Structure to design on (588 residues):
């Protein structure tokens, strides 16, 4: 990984973790529920989404005292979706990132409710910003709701489920990903841009960047599922192949998928041409997404 | 039922239903998801929560073009909680209000996601008010999140689940209900008060009213579970007794529960003394809650 990006991550991940902890421990809530929520939030992962929010601000050279809270709100949404996704009635996964899934530890009922409360906590976080105008904060609530609800992430999960029963065209596959993972990634970028005070033109460019890295992220996931080992992934490798799910490699072949990945990567970088520095953090993230090994 | 209240309900329920429909059909989302969301939202029920929001405004003699949207947002939260509550891993109910529960019709995975997306839609509704200041709208988002999340409704559901395994004291039972159902009812009243421009003192009185009708509502539910027939309830009667769950009648006896109900009713009415009319809609609702037969 690029040294500059690695330093950025090493610096910010503990701050994100601390903010997440703070958002979930203030005030009274039943201990078992809080433990279940914290378990999955602490299970970690790469914190790509919150880091992207922070990267936008960094690239604009703008500081916002609320950036960490907004960044963490996205991670709460992401975490809730993983908990529900892992449930027996959904993907029925026992492990996630090498750890037992939430319902294996706390039981299904608590896992459902922990997911529910994490979603609520995300909106609570956005409604409790202290250094952002009410207009901007409300715009963030609206954008997060659009990105994560029936027209965004949750809609994408339904499309994904339905897609498992059929063989999808490339267009249909991208439709799934643009909703299931792309919408929330786009929120990260747009939220960062709003906090940074970006203009409409810049926001449009950044949306296009987000769309491209979102698709690149998914292609890379599909490729890794074919090429990485179970140990590297922390979940069974080739799980997509086993289920005969449509993926980029299954539709385009492994080499075709890699070419497509490079295309989206190039597109993403081009969208950043308006930024002063030619090695922006957003560009480094685009590089990281295509180069990562897990 | 009181004629004045009946007319109020007959007038407003179709408006609430139409607003709910509108909130869930704008823009693109997968058809199966939308159908699942609409199925439970249309399954109806008494619309007590949205009607309470509107009743506050009526009692203050204030009109708000956003009142229906705020009222419907609460109903979306209530509906999502019912869908998740009915899941096999939670209460495992096949019927709700005499109709098949969501997961019996659409499958568990879709039911989980429909609940998730209904929660999101509620926050989206509050973030999309057109005639309310951003400050007020953001306060509503924050209050709804507090009322419905880990410290409110969802926390109450956890307390309720844990309570089923133990015999509760009256204080513990009230703690469950103040969270599980009371928090969202309080939101209705406070949201109406905010839209009506009530002052701090009035809001404090109304919060106390809400607390009292919330507990009254639950005692009445418990009493009806003992005294009503399965047909009247649309779900198996005596379901609480069968599960040996702590209830007001089990702790206080049926007569003791009725006395307690009357106490909360009286308290609720007293909180409304600041209102000009001595037969306010909120007072009529308090009467209705203790007198209803289902």
């Amino acid at each position: 990984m690029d040294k500059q990006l690695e330093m950025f991550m090493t610096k910010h991940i503990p701050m994100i973790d601390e903010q997440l902890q703070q958002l979930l421990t203030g005030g009274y809530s039943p201990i078992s529920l809080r433990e279940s929520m914290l378990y999955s939030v602490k299970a970690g992962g790469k914190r790509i989404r919150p880091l992207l929010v922070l990267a936008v601000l960094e690239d604009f050279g703008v500081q916002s005292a609320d950036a960490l809270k907004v960044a963490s709100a996205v991670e709460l949404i992401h975490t809730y979706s993983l908990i529900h996704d892992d449930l027996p009635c959904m993907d029925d996964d026992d492990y996630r990132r090498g750890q037992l899934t939430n319902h294996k530890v706390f039981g299904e009922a608590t896992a459902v409710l922990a997911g529910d409360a994490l979603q609520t906590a995300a909106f609570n976080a956005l409604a409790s910003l202290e250094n952002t105008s009410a207009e901007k904060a409300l715009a963030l609530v609206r954008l997060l709701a659009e990105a994560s609800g029936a027209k965004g992430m949750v809609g994408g999960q339904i499309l994904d489920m339905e897609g498992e029963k059929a063989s999808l065209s490339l267009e249909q596959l991208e439709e799934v990903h643009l909703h299931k993972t792309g919408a929330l990634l786009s929120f990260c970028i747009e939220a960062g841009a709003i906090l940074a005070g970006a203009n409409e033109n810049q926001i449009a460019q950044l949306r296009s960047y987000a769309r491209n890295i979102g698709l690149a992220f998914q292609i890379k996931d599909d490729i890794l599922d074919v090429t990485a080992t179970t140990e590297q992934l922390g979940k069974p490798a080739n799980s997509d192949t086993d289920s005969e799910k449509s993926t980029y490699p299954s539709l385009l072949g492994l080499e075709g998928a890699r070419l497509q990945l490079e295309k989206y990567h190039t597109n993403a970088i081009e969208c950043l041409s308006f930024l002063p520095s030619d090695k922006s953090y957003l560009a480094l993230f685009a590089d990281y997404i295509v180069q990562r090994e897990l």
